[in-house]
Design brief:
This protein is an alpha/beta fold. The chain has one domain: 3-Layer(aba) Sandwich (Rossmann fold). Helix content is 36%, strand content 23%. A five-stranded parallel β-sheet has the order 2-1-3-4-5, with helices on both faces. The longest helix has 12 residues, at 12-23. The chain is globular, with a radius of gyration of 13 Å.
């Protein structure tokens, strides 16, 4: 059975790229996609993903805030912060398992596989 992933990004082009990336993976399926951090939390509660990918800069609730709340709710679920500003983030100040730059998107699946092996 494929592992369930939730993605949250306010940019529809990025969400589409992530959807296409996971559609080509037989071992991973998207269970939900959100446009902001608050929606990501609601969808995570509903769909119980096994891994969450969050953009940092989103409306309503940003990815850093959402990651903190999600870790409180689901501490065992790995979270990847996926952002153009990855180099500016201090990993000690965020509730995420990985920080991946959108400029290095080609490495994202490698991080997913490390955090959520099949």
């Amino acid at each position: 059975m494929a592992r369930r992933i939730l993605i949250a990004d306010d940019n529809p082009i990025i969400r589409k790229m992530l959807c296409q990336m996971f559609e080509s993976e037989k071992d991973y399926d998207l269970c939900a996609e959100a446009r902001d951090g608050a929606e990501a939390i609601a969808l995570a509660i509903k769909h119980k993903p096994e891994l969450i990918i969050l953009d940092i800069s989103m409306p309503v609730m940003n990815g850093v805030q959402a990651a903190k709340e999600l870790k409180d709710l689901m501490p065992e679920v790995p979270i990847i912060l996926f952002s153009f500003y990855a180099d500016e983030i201090n990993p000690d100040h965020v509730s995420a398992d990985r920080i991946v730059s959108k400029t290095a998107a080609s490495t994202l699946m490698e991080h997913v596989r490390q955090l959520l092996p099949v």
